[in-house]
């Protein structure tokens, strides 16, 4: 958005400058190393079996396995998904064009490309299979865990049409500062392409406690940098440090204990579209899926600072500034800061993360290192972390000073004074109904309708209850908290909660409004309506989640 | 309430047991010493001049001063409020009976008793003067600061009718376990008498940043203990401590730095009456004044534990239990606990307070020592602190386990399971309109109505904005934050905020609904309506404050 005001020429110049200033160039060798490790990490990954979704992609493949077994002799040999000699090579861009029945439905699995158009009709999960159309089937199989069985993988090979070419640079175009952006999963629904901002289908969020990396919402402000891990150097400076200290990626990985936390990240603009319906706001038209939950591994910030002999209790340090390696056209990095009271308390689990869900941090999520400040709005969890500054004052970046702040509904662009509101740090308690979708038709089972979703609160406040209603909020019942971190402290729980409920509906009703509201450990709960929360930037919408559905009689 | 189920006889027996078990007896000598110090403290007190209320008690006295000057020759000599030889002695109970014009309106100032009935008519603040009827005028003069002038004090002496007798034990009745409760200011409106629970007139709360001690809401669960300061001993035990350590009041005052913080305390049941209107709940029918803001001085808990060589980072310590000296009929103390993550972090400012607003802690607020856990529900700020236990588990007290918890509106006394909800610790963000009162008639000035109130949030989250509406929440404007601690951290602000606003009303309107909603540093805000917050104990009502008024045309 900010960048969209620039002409193409200025953007191109900016890109050149980004490359010059960041002093990072593409080092093919180390990128390959990185990719190998990435795949090894993926192999180590657990097949989290949620057992919730029999009716999903490949559910049909499973039932069709006998046909596959009969045809086994005609299938390519070797490990399913391996590159198979003699097949045509397709890059990801080519695959992504095949996302409708008319254009044929292609999917990829590891190095395999498959045309599953003829299978779609047989898929018991129906349209669900189209979520993966034009891209990798793997993140969906992380969600619909029942598919990860040898017989299903063998079955998939029946539909092989080619190998997936190395397409990392398929979009490369030297005239476009975004040309070097990574390829994304086509299931991510873009709110903007340049910079890339996208959210996954809302429905999938409630199906898995950990959001798969490739389906995790992406929120960029600038083109994605491409630092080489070998040359990566994190600069640390400011109060209590003489000059500038640097730490390599290797330093972060080897000099400090590897700490793993589970934390949800949410964009301040999540559910902005509901504000847009009331009165147009400035900002990406996010649905309710600009949030995700993942494990993050890395070095604890306080360990790193102790190593640099910084006194974390030094009262002069009031803010910790994080600068990214993504630069704006003037050469200024994306930047943000958080209060030192939060960042310098080891109990607040701020980490410099190099892994996400046990995999190498993907480029879209800050490779090689990002700040994870759990309980805090996504915007302060700076990606491609280039510099940390221990400071008396906040970051002076545009995004800290003149964005990501909340205002009274009466404030407009003529009257707004960004100095009057504090930079968003913790986010308020929120929940969303992920399933069923607004406007859908839902079955009644034993007089009840089924709904599920996520709930989360900022500042480490655990979700203690989710209330749901099938009459627009007149009567309530309590949802079941089906996935939540166990034994975490009520004020040190960074991850979200997945909930579900079966709510009675009155006989004969044709339409109902389903509602959810969450309560956190401070007993804060969600406001009833969105109108009184409206603000010119469309941030901070944590009103009740409301979904209107028709009932199948 | 809990005690109300006991027969009078059992209550009497309980009282005997309280006296026996607590091992504290009334030591007249030391009580007198205490009273002397109390008065010395009072003399040192600043005349906080808010300058907000010209139209209040004594405003009229001021205007009438010339008459007083003319009659000065007839006035008693000496310092105003001093005991004057030759006047009749009245105790506080006798004074408290004179609280209407029919019974004559008496007030006290220091050791003076005054009949101001004939002055009431001349008082420019009108009915305001009746707030002090039957009790001390001093707390109101703390609020309406303009009165603290020598000429007004001289004026007051004109109305002298007697001296105030030492009435500390006026209510004493050995058959009543509450007989030894202190005398309270008659302006406190009781929600229950035994145990004593009362709130001040709502209107006065927004008039002064610091609530005067004698007008601070009182919330007791049991009879008020009366420990002697000389014999007072705080016991500390549990993980990391061998046996039981004891600290005297003198130890707390002399061995540790005196720390002063400003913190609001709020009862979990504040604004319960709004829930009662929807469907009857169990609990005291509190209005919106079961909250107050004061400075608290004492020893920092972490300093005391360091002195006892406790490692505050010991991971075995999960909870800090506070037991009071107020005992139930079985001899079990009132008790509560807070999480160690909160209590053992010096940055959370938990103190063992022996002063309130610069005065010796009053008996009704925990004399000689109470726990102040700022940002946390009043119930955990244990008064008459007798014992601290460092523990792996929560307090097993009734009030921690089976009370002070929140539930879904659908939960009733047949289905409630207190184990399912966490004990309330931090409270959610709240605001209340203190002035005008619901149902009152208000003037329109320049097309606007004036309102003011308080706002506060738990967990140290500073109030960053208060929005107000004069059309039931359809349109909003921002209130002015007139009194707020300056330069405190956004996540370490324990005190409340006083706000005021002038909101436009549409011409020709006769009735409007005024609304306030506050926003805290985590950008949590108040829910729109009370119905979805309803719960069987009537706690945690932080819905929008709504006041219906008629407009003077």
Automatic annotation (TrEMBL), chains A, B:
Keywords: Heme, Iron, Metal-binding, Mitochondrion, Molybdenum, Oxidoreductase. Pathway: Energy metabolism; sulfur metabolism; Sulfur metabolism. One of its GO terms (cellular component) is mitochondrial intermembrane space. It is an enzyme of class 1 (oxidoreductase). It comes from the Eukaryota. Its EC number is 1.8.3.1. This is Sulfite oxidase. It comes from Galendromus occidentalis.
């Amino acid at each position: 958005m900010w960048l969209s005001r620039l002409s193409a020429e200025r953007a191109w110049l900016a890109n050149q400058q980004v490359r010059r200033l960041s002093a990072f160039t593409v080092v093919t060798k180390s990128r390959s190393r990185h990719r190998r490790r990435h795949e090894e990490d993926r192999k180590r990954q657990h097949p989290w079996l949620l057992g919730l979704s029999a009716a999903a992609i490949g559910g049909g493949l499973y039932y069709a396995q006998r046909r596959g077994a009969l045809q086994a002799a005609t299938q390519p040999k070797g490990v399913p998904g391996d590159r198979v000699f003699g097949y045509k090579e397709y890059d990801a861009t080519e695959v992504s064009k095949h996302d409708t029945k008319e254009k044929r439905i292609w999917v990829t699995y590891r190095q395999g490309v498959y045309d599953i158009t003829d299978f779609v009709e047989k898929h018991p999960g129906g349209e669900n299979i189209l979520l993966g159309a034009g891209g990798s089937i793997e993140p969906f199989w992380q969600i619909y865990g029942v598919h990860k069985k040898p017989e299903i993988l063998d079955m998939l090979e029946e539909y092989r049409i080619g190998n997936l070419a190395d397409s990392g640079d398929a979009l490369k175009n030297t005239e476009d500062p975004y040309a070097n952006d990574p390829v994304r999963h086509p299931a991510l629904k873009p709110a903007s392409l340049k910079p890339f901002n996208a959210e996954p289908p809302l429905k999938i969020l409630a199906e898995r406690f950990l959001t798969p990396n490739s389906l995790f919402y992406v929120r960029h402000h600038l083109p994605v940098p491409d630092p080489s891990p070998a040359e990566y150097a994190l600069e640390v400076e400011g109060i209590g440090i003489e000059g500038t200290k640097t730490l390599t990626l290797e330093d972060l990985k080897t000099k400090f204990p590897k700490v793993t936390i589970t934390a949800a990240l949410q964009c301040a603009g999540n559910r902005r579209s509901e504000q847009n319906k009331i009165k147009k706001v400035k900002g990406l038209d996010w649905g309710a899926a600009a949030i995700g939950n993942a494990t993050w591994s890395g070095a604890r910030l306080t360990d790193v600072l102790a190593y640099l002999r910084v006194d974390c209790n030094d009262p002069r340090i009031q803010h910790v500034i994080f600068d990214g390696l993504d630069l704006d056209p003037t050469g200024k990095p994306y930047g943000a800061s958080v209060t030192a009271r939060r960042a310098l308390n080891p109990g607040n689990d701020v980490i410099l993360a190099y892994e996400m869900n046990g995999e190498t941090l993907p480029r879209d999520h800050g490779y090689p290192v990002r700040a994870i400040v759990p309980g805090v709005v996504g915007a302060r969890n700076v990606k491609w972390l280039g510099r940390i500054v221990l400071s008396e004052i906040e970051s002076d970046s545009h995004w800290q000073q003149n964005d990501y702040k909340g205002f009274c509904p009466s404030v407009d662009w003529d009257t707004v004074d960004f100095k009057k509101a504090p930079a968003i740090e913790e986010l308020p308690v929120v929940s969303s109904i992920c399933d069923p979708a607004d406007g859908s038709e839902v079955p009644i089972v034993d007089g009840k309708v089924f709904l599920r979703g996520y709930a989360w609160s900022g500042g480490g406040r655990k979700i203690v209850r989710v209330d749901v209603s099938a009459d627009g909020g007149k009567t309530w019942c309590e949802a079941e908290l089906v996935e939540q971190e166990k034994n975490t402290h009520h004020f040190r729980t960074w991850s979200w909660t997945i909930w579900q409920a079966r709510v009675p509906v009155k006989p004969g009703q044709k339409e109902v409004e389903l509602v959810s509201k969450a309560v956190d450990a401070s007993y804060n709960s969600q406001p009833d309506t969105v109108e009184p929360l409206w603000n010119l930037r469309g941030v901070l919408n944590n009103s009740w989640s409301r979904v209107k559905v028709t009932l199948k009689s």
